[in-house]
Write a structure and sequence with these properties.
- The chain has one domain.
- 78% of the residues lie in helices and 0% in strands.
- It contains 9 helices and no strands.
- It has helices at residues 2-20, 24-51, 56-77, 95-109, 118-142, 146-169, 171-175, 177-197, 207-222.
- It is globular, with a radius of gyration of 17 Å.
Amino acid sequence: MSLLILFLSVVVGATIVFVAKPTKLVTQLLLSFSGAYLLAITVTHLLPEVFQDNESSKIGIFIILGLLIQLIMDYFSKGVEHGHIHTHSKKELPTVLFVSLCLHAFMEGVPINDHEHQELLWAIVVHKIPITIVLGSFLLQAKMHLSKNLLILFAFAMMSPLGSYFGTNIPFLLTYKTEITAITIGIFLHISTTIIFESSENHKFNIAKFIAILVGFGLAIIV
């Protein structure tokens, strides 16, 4: 079921892009909400879980490693994981950007299965929908052939389910699932805080985005 939910999160995001064609403001509000939700789930559920019955210093090292990995991936993905695509050409999606985005999606799926980390599952779903909207909006602007756009989105949609499948069935990934989850936490801390800190242009207070952040925090705490 988790595999299907992860796949459908991209389908939902792509449908919103091609059918509703949301404005930049709507996309930014969704990003702000998802960043707050992701951060709250990370702090209230994932962090306590990985530190429980594990050596704090070791887990902390893997969290820092996750932060560093995301910093490196940001260099190649141009920040698409937190809602930005900065390219010199909008005629096509750069290969290195797409590979980095897929690697990120694969890694965040590894700790997920049908029996645990359900909070993480829904945090990723909430995160992937606006990111898919950003990616889909870029593909529309690039005016590439529809079949190519759908192929790119399908490949992206498969990455997190593949990560989850491998994380559940490959012994090495099962053995080091706690460490992998800690790395994922580091990645999420970078992404979520970046989204929140970048949510206001020119450091001006934006009440709509602030409310979206509050709703994200509140919903994550309730669930």
